[in-house]
């Protein structure tokens, strides 16, 4: 990221790029704005993640990705089905004093690292009724204070999904069928004091 670090505008414009590989700009903390073009059709895992990122945009008419309220989604047809990335310093959230976020009911997958370092205090998944998959490190090192799943099926919960969430105090998984879950999903959540989970699930 040396060249990017020297970019005084802190903005990465990629109007002609069609594909970005895994971890391509991960950790590029000098970049706070990323503008993707209308022809972008492939994003590798953790391609855009960095703890200082504020804004992502996607060119009009893109059929693979869309940004709504500062959050990057993957599309199936015209439907948001994958939550790819919520920037840690989401400028839309900051401008509108948003501290709680409701995941759209059409989402079936939350990508790895999607909410890592997020400043949100609460993520609400109660409206999600599909078989939900949550990727590795999806909410790790975030500022979440509570998390609840109240319906549908949590098909899989990735490894280290809530790793080092120091503010997480309550966890509730009720009326939910839990499939697989990865190792250390709640490791180092030192302030987790209230936990409600199905009898079939062991932390």
Describe the structure.
This protein is mainly beta. 4% of the residues lie in helices and 33% in strands. It contains 2 helices and 17 strands. The protein has helices at residues 2-5, 91-95, and strands at 11-14, 19-20, 33-36, 42-43, 55-58, 65-68, 71-76, 79-85, 100-102, 109-110, 122-124, 131-134, 146-149, 153-157, 170-173, 177-181, 194-196. It is globular and about 50 Å long. The termini are far apart.
Compact overview of the structure:
The protein has 203 residues and is mainly beta.
Structural class comes to mainly beta
Fraction of residues in β-strands: 25-35%
Order of helices and strands: HEEEEEEEEHEEEEEEEEE
The shape is: globular
Physical arrangement of strands within the biggest beta sheet: 6-7-8-10-12-14-16
Number of strands: 17
In round numbers, the mean pLDDT is 88
| Oligomeric state of this protein | single chain
Gyration radius over CA: 17 Å
What is the CA–CA distance across the termini? 38 Å
Runs in which pLDDT lies below 50 for 5 or more consecutive residues are: none
| Helical segment count | 2
In helices, the fraction of residues equals under 10%
Q: How would a crystallographer describe the biggest sheet? A: 7 strands, mixed
Keywords:
203 residues; mainly beta; five-stranded parallel beta sheet; 2 helices
């Amino acid at each position: 990221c040396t060249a990017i670090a020297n970019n005084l505008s802190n903005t990465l414009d990629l109007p002609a790029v069609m594909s970005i590989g895994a971890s391509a700009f991960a950790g590029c903390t000098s970049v706070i704005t990323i503008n993707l073009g209308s022809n972008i059709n492939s994003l590798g895992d953790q391609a855009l993640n960095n703890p200082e990122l504020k804004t992502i945009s996607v060119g009009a008419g893109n059929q693979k990705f869309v940004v709504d309220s500062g959050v990057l989604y993957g599309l199936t047809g015209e439907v948001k089905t994958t939550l790819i990335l919520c920037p840690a310093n989401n400028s839309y959230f900051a401008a509108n004093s948003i501290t709680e976020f409701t995941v759209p009911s059409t989402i079936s997958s939350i990508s790895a690292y999607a909410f890592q370092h997020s400043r949100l205090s609460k993520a609400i998944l109660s409206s999600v009724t599909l078989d939900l998959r949550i990727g590795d490190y999806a909410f790790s090192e975030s500022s979440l204070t509570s998390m609840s799943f109240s319906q549908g099926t949590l098909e899989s919960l990735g490894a280290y999904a809530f790793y080092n969430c120091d503010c997480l105090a309550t966890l509730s998984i009720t009326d939910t069928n839990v499939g697989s879950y990865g190792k250390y999903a709640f490791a180092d959540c030192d302030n987790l004091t209230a936990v409600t989970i199905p009898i079939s699930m062991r932390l």
